Amino acid sequence: MKAFITVIWLAGWSLASGAHPATEPGDTSRKAPSLQVDIRDMPMVLARPANVLFPARLAGHEAEAMDYVRRFAEQRREYLIRTYKKGKQYFPKVLKVFKKYQVPEEFRVLLALESGFNAKAISSAGAVGYWQIMDEVAKEYGMSITEKQRNQKAVTKKGRKGNYKKSVRETLQPVPAKPVVDDRMHFLKSTQVAARYIRDRMRNLEDDWLLIAASYNCGVGNVWQAMQRSGKVNPTFWDIRDRLPAETQAYVMNFIALNVIFHNYDNFVRNQVCWEDEYCIDDTGMAKEPKPVISETSLALAFVR
């Protein structure tokens, strides 16, 4: 929309020596002329330059992701601060395992997205533990899962001797339950499997981080299927985004958002994030202070499980 500033020029009539105004007091036929000025022609001052840095391997798609990341930062501020602080306890341990398996550190945020650092988290689909690992994946990677069972066994008891022949009867007695074992709830074991899974996806998804993140959410088979349907030789996440489940689309965008915000956390927590170059009109010779970018308002968490 083209913005204009209307400048009113107050015009007076020059009075010659001894001359009188030519208009009567009630004459309204003469209108003060107006001039429309496009403010885009006025001097603009760069008040604050953009200072958001993308992690190197996520750079190149700022245009597609920036709006989402910005909204995420504004609307999920309390969640992000809480997650960052909790991550200080878990992320160093995760990075030790990732280093062993040569997994990029950016994937550590999947722990927060998957379970919120909760060992006992169980999804509606049946994924369990810190890294929300499904049964079939757990078995594929050799994880131990022993369900709690309280079976009954038959116990034979002899009847009393009497005038009749000896009777034999069986009763069912409970067997003490075996202790539950589920490696998916064990931090180190589940983190090792998560690292191995991500490493395997790095090999068969051409080390495309966003496709790897998508496969962690919806399965590598669904990602491959979406890639084939795209008709492109080497499709990226942005090429197949609309072919993935809505949950997976949001999941990958959350993966980007957490990495970008944590990468700029000091500025974020101080409300000093500038998402894009901000310009002001220099009408007084001094730049105006822009409004704060990050809102203090915290809404209910919607994008992250």
What's the N-to-C terminus distance?
39 Å
Roughly what is the average pLDDT, rounded to an integer? 77
Order of helices and strands: EEEHHHHEEEEHHHHHHE
- The structure class reads alpha+beta
Rounded radius of gyration (Å): 34 Å
Largest sheet, strands/sense/barrel: 2 strands, antiparallel
**Which spans have pLDDT < 50 for at least 5 consecutive residues?**
1-25, 285-305
Give the overall silhouette. Answer: globular
Helix content: 25-40%
Number of DSSP-assigned strands:
8
Strand content: 5-15%
In the sheet with the most strands, the strands line up as 1-2
DSSP helix count?
A: 10
Describe this structure in words.
It is a single chain. It is built from ten helices and eight strands. By secondary structure, the protein is of the alpha+beta class. The chain has a domain at 46-118 and 185-281. Helix 1 (62-75) crosses helix 9, helix 2 (77-101) crosses helix 5 (187-204) and helix 5 crosses helix 6 (209-218). The radius of gyration is 34 Å and the shape is globular. The two termini are 39 Å apart.
Defining key terms:
single chain, 305 residues, alpha+beta, two-stranded antiparallel sheet, 39% helix, globular, disordered N terminus, disordered C terminus
Brief rundown of the structure:
With 305 residues, the chain is α+β, with helices and mostly antiparallel strands. The chain has a domain of 170 residues.
